[in-house]
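Subject: for your reference before the review

Hello V.,

The reviewers asked for a structural picture of the protein, and I figured it would be easier to keep everything in one thread rather than splitting it across files. Below is the amino acid sequence we used in the manuscript, unchanged from the supplementary table.
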Amino acid sequence: MTPDPPATPDLPAQRAHRGTIQLESAAILAHQNCGAGQFVLRLAAPFTAAHATPGSFVHLTCSEQLPMRRPLSIMRAHPQEGWIELLYKVVGAGTAALATRRSGEQLNLLGPIGCGFSPNPQRPRVLAIGGGVGIPPMIFLADRLRADTRARWQPLVLMGSEIPFPFPSRPSRILLPDIPAGVIAAMPLLDDWAIPSRLASGAGFAGCFDGFVTELAALWLATLSAPERSEVEIFACGPTPMLAAVARLAHQHGLPAQVSLEEYMACAVGGCAGCAVEVTTSAGRTMKRVCVDGPVFSAASVFP
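And here is what came back from the structure prediction:
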């Protein structure tokens, strides 16, 4: 069995991505209200689009009247056309101000920031789990795997939400015999990419699994043979309780798992250390900054 990736990479590699962080003035190309206080924002940001990786994020100025930026995960990036997309939910003054911005306006951002996900070609069965506003990195990861020729990737994207999803779901055209009968709701974009997805919610949405997304993941893993499970790696982003459940699930099945953490941030470039979390390294427990040392960590290092 392939072991978990190291809790922290070698220092030079860990810092290499920091040279890609730049200030960028980004024009709003589109700003879609997806309901339930959720928005998809498309920005013209050529530098960020060219250097972003699944799991990286931007630190965005939401309003000139608010001095503090807000960290937002990148959902999609198109290097050739020079745009990025961000999915966010209005939760406070910053995102409320951002929701009022219109196409053609300029936003200032720092990006792309952070160490992203590192899929292992020896484990092509990618199980991507996104909860709430943790959904965007899973879509970005699925998109990049489509063009990655290092392996015959077989991603499955599971998404959970207790409010309406930020996209109209539809019955999937991709059959998944290892998923409970009746769980057929999928994200149309992923279906169009020929990437299977399924949705979970306790809110009673049609076609969704009735329960936590991690429970759906556990049911799917239980159907796999030992050789099939040996090809699985888990990737997740979402609320901390969900990530802890992912770590337990990975440990139960002896699987490597990478989790993207969500933390409040001030500078987002490693200067203030306000987003530090405790992780396990070869030298023992230590503090790491989610912004530049993460946001992606081995699940076992965060939830021992």
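For the response letter, the relevant points are probably these. Confidence is low (pLDDT under 50) at residues 1-17. The first strand starts at residue 22 and ends at 35.

Happy to draft the paragraph if you're swamped.

O.
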